[in-house]
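Example record for the data management plan.
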Amino acid sequence: MKSKRLLSISIFLSPCLFAGAQLNASSDSKFTDSVNNIAFRVLVNFISSDTLATHVAEAEKNNISHLGEQHQLITPVQTYPGSGGSMASTFSYDNFLPSVYNKEATQGSPFLLPVYVPGLVINPSYGVVNKPDYQYNYDKMSGNLLLKRNNEQPIAVNRELVKMFCLKLDKGGYIFSRVPLINDNEFFQVVYKGPKYSSYKLYKNKFINANQKTNGYSTDGKNYDEYQDIETYYLVDEKKETWVIYELSKKSIRKVLNAESAAVEQYFKEHKNDDITEPWMAQLLETLNK
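Corresponding structural encoding:
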């Protein structure tokens, strides 16, 4: 798992904050962009604060029960009643659908984090959901935001109720957002958000059964079940309203940022000994957004 890796972003947004109340949306795109920026800033401030000691640094420990070789979730039977405001405490709770068998040696996890953590949710009306007894996680296999309240079983939140959300760690955290330009039905992790270029990451996860075979003399294949991550990076040109898929490699970055070749090559030169990681990419985009 990669939950040790924290979100690294730079913000060029309004310093204003929500008071938690619902805002009336406007059809004007500039207004919508501004509200999105303010909402994003709220999430950034939340994960940047030093008010938490979650201690999830031992990311390889998978403390979340995931019974069954087929990992499935179902969304609440009842959708959120009414409109506006925050998530009600009257959600219908549905449990995981377990099978009866799970190998001890299963590798990986369908969950982003090894524990449920505090977070904030921004609903489509731009209301802020901030409840101390709510804890969250993200299911990479289903693409669902998971909500756990007190000692109850976790549920998959109806994604129609969520515009953005964040997951707070002891140091930093993750921010996810729907990105209509790419796919409004998915939650994308924000790698970097800027006025000219932004970058997002889409998680997928698949279950692979153990496939070890033997002829009595030698063995072949894996003797454990595995949850395998599939990660896709997107670069968004905010001005042109276009996007491309890229990889964390010099060749790919040169290709997708061909229009910024001089600045990109200068950045490569200045960071020639650095590994190309998400924070590295965020810093490059910060440079290009200046």
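Summary line stored alongside the record: The longest strand covers residues 197-208.
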